[in-house]
């Protein structure tokens, strides 16, 4: 790598290098779209060689996944703000689901998760232990007293898994025509909300 790489400002650490690669990838995606963004584009954006990028990420899809994951953090902040004041567990979950189904496809970086196939957060990756644990942490940020509602930590893990599975279905296999918000809210209120209207029973063998 020449001394003019990284725009003349070499990163001070591996963490900074990774973040600058992620930021450069986000700019390339915004400019060219995810399908036309290559590792060479990212290297050129940074003024480094492809090998320099390879030292931090093995594949362009790995960097795209990081762009999407950081978009997810920002999205969760929006979701929590949207739910401010909604303290009923059933209402919070229903409104959260409606917000996700409506908003995720319109968020440029978050919607990348829909384009990562089975490895993405809304493909087979939705049911990994890490994804479910992330979902449970997200539920903890809801303005709901889950313990007072009778939900344990194990219950929140199960609820997070069900939410991820439902979101995967709604986002990857939308109805034709897609339901409007009122119909989606009514569907979730009828079939999902009752499970949160009372303390959930433990599944057989769940401990």
UniProtKB/TrEMBL annotation:
InterPro entries: Homeodomain-like_sf (IPR009057), HTH-type_TetR-like_transc_reg (IPR050109), HTH_TetR (IPR001647). Pfam families: TetR_N (PF00440). Keywords: DNA-binding. PROSITE patterns: HTH_TETR_2 (PS50977). Residues 15-75 form the HTH tetR-type domain. GO terms for molecular function: DNA-binding transcription factor activity; transcription cis-regulatory region binding. Gene3D superfamilies: Tetracycline Repressor, domain 2. It comes from the Bacteria. Residues 38-57 bind DNA. This is TetR family transcriptional regulator. It comes from Actinocorallia herbida.
